[in-house]
C-alpha cells in the first residue's frame, strides 16, 4: 500500500475505522482481526512516512550532543507504556536502530533478536525483557546507558492485579473472589499467589533480574545484586514523580523538552483500594524485592534531583505548563492544526501538530510490527 498524501492517508483511516465499526456490529471475528491489523499498519505508516525530512537523516544536527544509545528496562505496570512511546518516537525521529524481538513483544535472549548487519549495532533496546548484563551488552556500543523505572510496590501491585485480571486475564487472578479482591490477594498469598514471581508478587524484582530462589533472609545476595544494578543503571525513574523523572532524563541524555512530551497510554482505571496498615506490612513482606528496589532507587533519585539545584524545579514547572498545553490540544475535538510552544530558558520555540499527537497516542503493539519491517530493510 502506497499513500501519496496526508489527505489520502486520512481517507484510508476513515474507511478502515468504518470497516471496524461495521465488523463490530456483525461480530465477525476474522474480519475484525484483519481490520485491527490494517488500523495498526496505517497508523504506523503515518508515523514513519510523514516525519519531517530533517528528522529522517541519521546523525543529523538534532542529535548532536544527545545520547542516542539507550537500553530501557520495561518494568511491568510502572508507566512503561507511556515511557516506551517517548523512546520509540525519539528513535524513529532520529532514524535509530532498535533491538527488536523476532516475534512477539519479549526479548528472552540474544537469539530472540532480529540481527543487525555485520558492521552495525543496536541503538535502542526497549522490548520487554528481564535484565541481564549479557543481553544488555550484546551488539551495543560501549557508550550505551541503561535506564529503568520503579513504582510504589503497593500501588503497583493493586494496578497490576486489576489489569491482569480484567484486561490481560491471568488464571490465578481470576480465581480470587471479586468481593474484597485485593484484600484476599494480599491476605492469602499462599492460596492465591504462591509463585515467588508473578504479575503481583515481586514483579519488579523479576524484571530487574533477581533470582526466584532468593528469600527475604538472603541479605548478602540481595545486596550483591543491588550493587550490580546501581553500577549498571545510569538512571532509574520513579513513576510517582513522572514529570520530574522525564526532566531528569532529559538533562541526563541532553535531550530537548520536545523529546519528552507524552500522552498517557495504557492507563487502566479501576476502583480505589485503601489497605490497612497490617495488610500493607504483609504485602511489603510478600513483595520484599519490590520494596527494596523502590526504596533504593527512590533514595538515589532524590540525591540526583538535589544535585541538579534549584533551577531543576523551575524547569519541571515549565515542562508541566507545556505538557498541559499539548495535552489540551491533543485531546480537543476541535482545535487548530498546531500549537506553538514559546521559547524559554530550557527550550527553543517549537510547535506540535496533529500528527505529533497521533504519534504520542500510538502504543507498542502498533509500533512493533512495522518496526520489524523497517529493521529488516535497514539491516539487509
Helix-strand layout with pairing:
Layout: H1 6-26, H2 29-49, E1 70-72, H3 80-93, E2 98-99, E3 106-107, E4 124-125, E5 128-129, H4 133-137, E6 145-150, H5 153-166, H6 171-174, H7 181-187, H8 189-192, H9 203-207, H10 219-232, E7 233-238, H11 242-253, H12 277-286, H13 288-308, H14 311-331, E8 338-341, E9 350-353, H15 354-360, H16 364-378
Parallel strand pairs: 1-4, 1-6, 2-4, 3-5, 6-7
Antiparallel strand pairs: 8-9
Describe the model:
There is one protein chain. By secondary structure, this protein is an alpha/beta fold. It has a domain at 51-152 and 223-268 and 298-378. Helix content is 51%, strand content 8%. It has helices spanning 6-26, 29-49, 80-93, 133-137, 153-166, 171-174, 181-187, 189-192, 203-207, 219-232, 242-253, 277-286, 288-308, 311-331, 354-360, 364-378; strands at residues 70-72, 98-99, 106-107, 124-125, 128-129, 145-150, 233-238, 338-341, 350-353. The strands form three sheets. Strands 2-4-1-6-7 form a five-stranded parallel beta sheet, sandwiched between helices. Strands 3-5 form a two-stranded parallel ribbon. Strand 8 and strand 9 form a beta hairpin. Helix 2 crosses helix 15 (354-360) and helix 2 crosses helix 16 (364-378). The longest helix is centred in the N-terminal third of the chain and has 21 residues, at 6-26. The chain is globular, with a radius of gyration of 22 Å.
